[in-house]
Write a structure and sequence with these properties.
Helices cover about 20% and strands about 35% of the residues. The protein has 1 helix and 4 strands. The chain is elongated.
Length: about 100
């Protein structure tokens, strides 16, 4: 498996810093003897905005079924959306 970091973006969301890195990934192979295709995965870190320590270990996201995203932009947006859902579900439910 070759993995290479392509881009990283940082977002502020409800008092948390979301760091989304996109890496190329060629580890996924469809069935039927088809050659591996290069895709992208999102590596997400969630930090408290005023603390440099991550809330938990980095999370790796692809599309449904364990497939990588087709484009870097899809991976970036998928990782960002997943990070926001995690913050909403785990940390902001008490304030609603």
């Amino acid at each position: 498996m070759k993995s290479e970091q392509a881009m990283t973006r940082t977002y502020e969301y409800h008092g948390y810093t979301l760091v989304v890195a996109v890496e190329s990934d060629s580890s996924w192979q469809p069935g039927g003897g088809v050659a591996a295709r290069v895709g992208y995965v999102a590596i997400v870190r969630i930090l408290q905005a005023d603390n440099a320590i991550a809330v938990f270990s980095p999370l790796r996201f692809g599309e449904a079924g364990g497939r990588p995203f087709v484009t870097e932009v899809d991976a970036l947006m998928g990782g960002y959306s997943a990070a926001r859902r995690i913050v909403d579900d785990l940390f902001n439910h008490a304030s609603q």
